[in-house]
Design brief:
This protein is of the alpha+beta class. The chain contains 13 helices and 17 strands. The strands form four sheets. Strands 1, 2, 3, 4, 5, 6, 13, 14, 15, 16 and 17 form an eleven-stranded mixed sheet that branches. The protein has a two-stranded antiparallel ribbon with strand order 7-8. A two-stranded antiparallel ribbon has the order 9-10.
């Protein structure tokens, strides 16, 4: 079904990572530039890992939508305002919903090639600040043809296959005979698991506060929370959501998907540090996990949500492993039917998958999710004393990505 590209990595490590809480669309983080959210996550990741900003060799930042006027400079500004040396270059990566994963893959590739030894990875997204945009008015307005559209809504429509992202989930529901009841049951489980895991998830969340970011010789910037809000440090979308509530929601895409059993629209950021084994040994670090292998594949755009299935199969084949050799999976819940299709295709054991809740409950800030999933699955492996985990996601346009990690 898919032809992939990937790599096996030798002696490359995810030292540690952090993230902000995920704020509901148009909520407490609505005014904050994704650059500033990224700077916050980067600074906190460096502090947690004990890797000095002065030692970073490369900055890789992931972001989907340009949601500030200085968006062109996002990766560079994240590096500069995290006190990374001015001569250290920065790169922006964009693989749609696989963007956060791509920050880790680019870091591992750079280390494997000897281009860097210590890489700062950041994923950041403001869904709330997605613009209302016009693309054809540079030369003026024509009579009756003034057209401004909601970028956040329009960008979810794949013009190649003429399908919205929700439609691709409905296609999978029909292909795999997935009922509305199955999808709602899964969504209720996601919310319940997220509620039960609040203490575990708090271990990867850093508080967002109002603060300034300075660098000598350059303009100050920073975060200003709404009046009366001193700190934000939760996943705001997590709430009691029983099956009965989900069953009462109207379909959003003329099928099984509703606003309650699809991934939540949220704002947030994550940061992590990836290093070579030599750095681990020189510094006496105790890293979170080893990055073993990665795989990116293509699938038909109209069923893009099946992407994790061939990506996971590909990364296992590349590493010489079987599905049963993996102890935990974190698979992005873009849509309930999409996840269930992957589960059925692979024969996944749900007791091993998204055990602390997924994006239906927590939210899916597009450029952040992959980095969060890598951090979460690694932390979960350490929590329960297991060895191998895979983080994976589907990707709009018809792709899938998977990263294999070991502790």
């Amino acid at each position: 079904m898919a032809k992939g590209i990937g790599a096996i990595y030798d002696d490359i490590w995810l030292v540690d990572g952090v993230r902000t809480g995920f704020a509901d669309y148009n909520s407490v983080l609505r005014e904050i530039s994704p650059t500033d959210l990224g700077i916050k996550a980067a600074r906190e990741a460096l502090a947690k890992t004990g890797i000095a900003a002065a030692d970073i060799d490369m900055v890789v930042a992931g972001n989907m939508a340009q949601s500030s006027f200085d968006a062109y400079f996002l990766p560079r500004h994240i590096g500069l305002y995290s006190d990374v040396p001015i001569e250290v270059p920065a790169l922006l990566v964009h693989r749609l919903c696989g963007t956060g994963f791509e920050t880790v893959i680019q870091a591992a590739d750079a280390i494997a090639l000897g281009k860097a030894a210590r890489v700062l990875c950041v994923g950041t997204e403001s869904m709330s600040r997605n613009p209302v945009a016009a693309y054809t008015h540079r030369s003026g307005f024509k009579m009756g043809q003034v057209e401004f559209k909601d970028f956040l809504w329009e960008a979810t429509k794949d013009t190649a296959s003429a399908t919205g992202m929700g439609d691709t989930a409905e296609n999978l529901a029909r292909k795999y005979n997935i009922s509305r009841e199955e999808v709602d049951d899964f969504a209720a489980q996601s919310f319940a698991r997220a509620q039960a895991s609040a203490e575990f998830r708090a271990g990867e969340i850093v508080p967002v506060i109002s603060e300034s970011f300075s660098r000598e010789g350059y303009q100050d910037r920073g975060i200003r929370l709404p009046k009366g809000v001193k700190s934000f440090e939760i996943d705001e979308h997590v709430r009691p959501t029983p099956r009965e509530v989900l069953a009462g929601l109207k379909p959003a895409f003329k099928g099984v998907q509703t606003g309650g059993n699809s991934s939540a629209v949220v704002d947030g950021a994550a940061g992590a540090v990836v290093v070579s084994g030599a750095v681990v040994r020189e510094r006496g670090l105790q890293p979170l996990a080893r990055i073993v292998a990665a795989e990116v594949v293509g699938v038909p755009p109209e069923i893009m949500g099946i992407g994790p299935a061939p990506a996971i199969a590909g990364v296992l084949d590349r590493a010489g492993l079987r599905l049963a050799d993996v102890d935990r999976f974190e698979i992005n819940e873009a849509f309930g039917a999409q996840y269930l299709a992957v589960e059925k295709e692979l024969g996944l054991d749900r007791a091993k998958t998204n055990v602390n809740g997924g994006a239906i409950a927590l939210g899916h800030p597009l450029g952040v999710t992959g980095l969060r999933l890598c951090i979460t699955v690694s932390r979960e492996l350490r929590r329960v004393g297991l060895k191998r985990g895979i983080a994976s996601a589907c990707i709009g346009g018809g792709q899938g990505v998977a990263i294999l990690l070991e502790v």
